[in-house]
Amino acid sequence: MGEDPRSIREEKWERLKALGHDPFLNTSYPVSAHSQDVVGAYSKWENQDVWLAGRVVAIRRHGKALFLDLRDQEGRIQCHFREDIVGSSFSLLDYLDLGDLLGVHGKVFKTRRGEISVEVADFQYLAKSLSDLPDKRHGLRDVDLRYRYRYLDLLANPEVGQVFRTRAAILAYLRNYLHERGFMEVETPVLLPLAGGTEARPFQSYHNALDMPLYLRIAMELHLKRLLVGGFERVYEIGRVFRNEGISTRHNPEFTMLELYQAYTDYHGVMELVESMLSGLVQQIHGSPIITYQGQSLDFTPPFARVDMVQRLKEKTGIDWQDIKTNEDAHKLAQKLGVRVDPKFERAQVMDKVTGQLVEPDLVQPTFLWHHPVDISPLAKRDPHYPFLTERFELFVAGRELANAFSELNDPVDQRQRFQFQQEQRRAGNDEVPPLDEDFLFALEHAMPPTGGLGVGVDRLVMLLTDSPSIRDVILFPTMRPPEPNATADNSESN
């Protein structure tokens, strides 16, 4: 039975320390460029000195010479070591392993095969890897291991890093777009005495000093609206929200939302903003308004399609939303249509579920599904021409909800009545309904201007623009069940 690989690496580390080259001592290295700076501009760097730092991902020994591939955040570059150039330090390469972090200094040249490389004059150990990297040929393929050990996923699958660079570019674009249009970025509380703004189960915590329960926010909406009462006219926040719900390819309990509120506009104005913002974003990221997501071609050229929610439901089922009067009628309808729903669902929840099953999957191209009924839209203004409907829309792309927006309800009397109706559902056992927020109602009584509001699921947006099938692909550290005892990222099992 061979010696444990970790023990071999630790022994090499001990030998390096004995020679006065402990790679974990506090040190700095004067990096002058990244690999792709050199590779992409060889004529500038030819025969010039360069200092690079990165991870050793391949080693090839040839007698008194050694080639290795050094990878940094931009890519990889070949480094050539010759004993007659490096001198006595050449023997330190005997302690080199895949995964070690190394700093190299030398001149840039091309090999006889035309590969841009560095002729190393001197080098320095910067950190030693005491564990093996994922198998260099097969990489890290097991999906559970990839999500659980994201740092190994990034090492083994460099293309994964590009997803998160794109995510950063998306966030930068959104912030710049809103800044140019006069929006101010703000921060609102994450820990709250009650969590409102939508229907969802919150995570509960406890504050010892105040001797009271606190909840992680499920939305940012109610605090952002308070700021409009206070006189700000255009505000937004990009931040984490938390919902104590199931995990799927579309849902993670902790996810990122963009919420914005603009005074003196309505949901038509927000539609125009969404079209402008997203079409510009897609153009910025992909160089075209047309992208492919999971084999589907999607065109973000404005204007986006508009579909009336209640009308489309009637077209699909022959059922008018208003004709379903009771919870019993709603459940019978769902059963007739083959839609499975929770037996505890109220009428409006059932109807919303039916719409989700029968209408939403057909909305492939960017589409505004609008005119939601009042009973599923407690924070949206009524349509003055159709009082049972609201001035609300959801944006769907590839059959998935991407955004939700209203002409925000600013009538404190109507808002109180809708909150009280929700409390009846809460008392009946709907634990997703938030408690009545008296402080928010008090704020509305001081007059909130006419306002258009928008919430965008940032993770789903990143999924679309990186052609990622699962939300876990676009969250660096998704929520996961703890590993089994003694479980590790055994790379031999991930081939």
Provide a descriptive summary of the structure in words.
The protein is an alpha+beta fold and 495 residues long. The protein has two domains: 5-127, OB fold (Dihydrolipoamide Acetyltransferase, E2P) (Beta Barrel), CATH 2.40.50.140; 158-304 and 365-474, BirA Bifunctional Protein, domain 2 (2-Layer Sandwich). It has 15 helices and 20 strands. It has helices at residues 5-18, 35-40, 42-45, 83-86, 143-148, 150-156, 158-180, 221-229, 267-286, 309-317, 327-337, 347-358, 412-427, 438-444, 458-466, and strands spanning 49-62, 65-72, 75-82, 101-110, 116-127, 184-185, 191-192, 204-207, 212-216, 234-242, 254-263, 290-293, 296-299, 305-308, 367-370, 382-383, 386-390, 392-397, 400-407, 451-457. The strands form five sheets. An eight-stranded mixed sheet has the order 6-10-11-20-19-18-15-14, sandwiched between helices. A hairpin with a 2-residue loop joins β18 (392-397) and β19 (400-407). α6 packs across α7, α7 crosses α9 and α11 (327-337) packs parallel to α12 (347-358).
Count, helices = 15
- Morphology: elongated
Classify the beta-strand content into a percent band: 25-35%
Q: What helical percentage do the residues reach?
A: 25-40%
Low-confidence stretches: 491-495
Largest sheet: 8 strands, mixed
Q: Which architecture of the largest domain would the CATH scheme give at its second level? A: 2-Layer Sandwich
- In total, the number of strands is 20
